[in-house]
Amino acid sequence: DAKTTQPTSMDCAEGRAANLPCNHSTISGNEYVYWYRQIHSQGPQYIIHGLKNNETNEMASLIITEDRKSSTLILPHATLRDTAVYYCIVRTLYGGATNKLIFGTGTLLAVQP
Amino acid sequence: DTGVSQDPRHKITKRGQNVTFRCDPISEHNRLYWYRQTLGQGPEFLTYFQNEAQLEKSRLLSDRFSAERPKGSFSTLEIQRTEQGDSAMYLCASSAYRQGIRQPQHFGDGTRLSIL
Q1: Do B104 and A34 touch (CB under 8 A)?
Q2: Which residues lie below 8 Å from residue B33, measured CB to CB, with a gap of 6+?
């Protein structure tokens, strides 16, 4: 599975949009981009995933560049409860490849009041 | 809420003791995973089951570690002769596998193990 690069930390003002970038320049054609977040003392929480089209759900939006080498997770109106470590992971959806998720160190998003 | 449940949430034990953790996955999920997380790091994969079969094990899973999923439902992770380096958060996740497509993994809140 391809490696990802994320900033170590980011700040965001409460009520504003939080835009979290991720680089995955070695992503292959059958690999999806997944986002998880981990609030302190909790397990990782699945947020969203996508292949090449932009995706939106009740939690966030995922924007993937046309060349698929980078993506941005958008939390449209950040709240203090969105303070967490956000992990960007790429993996395949099919086939016999490993089923494990490979986490990096993620981005610590601090939402400021 | 019928999410992934782990027990206990916290375990403190002396070095050399054996410990066992339990994970109850989301009921319709046929895949179950164990991860370990140390301070400041992302979770690291240990092992996974499809139904009752253990299909993949990490090199992190030394001989002192054993995992079971006897009836394809709950799972246990046992650590024998615990060492200081075993202190970590042990996370369980589950997912469905339908028509050849992996569904997202959903995590429990983990068991935090502290070795004295």
Answers
A1: yes
A2: A99, A100, A101, B45, B46, B47, B48, B49, B92, B93, B94, B95, B105
Selected residue of B1, B107, B109 to mutate for chain A interface (largest A Cβ count, 10 A): B107
Count CB atoms within 10 A of the CB of residue A13: 11
Tokens 């068991």 sit at which residue?
B111
Q: How confident is the model at residue A30 (pLDDT cuts 50, 70, 90)?
A: confident
Cα–Cα distances (Å) from B18 to B33, B68, B87, in that order, read: 21, 15, 13
Name the β-bridge partners of A23: A5, A70
DSSP for A14-49, please give it: TTSPEEEEEE-TT--TTEEEEEEEE-TTS--EEEEE
pLDDT under 70: residue ranges of chain B: 1, 100
Name the average pLDDT for chain A: 92
Question: What pLDDT is stored for residue A96 in this prediction?
Answer: 55
- A67-85: pLDDT as tens digits: 999 999 999 999 999 999 9
Q: What does the block give as tokens for A99?
A: 């089923």
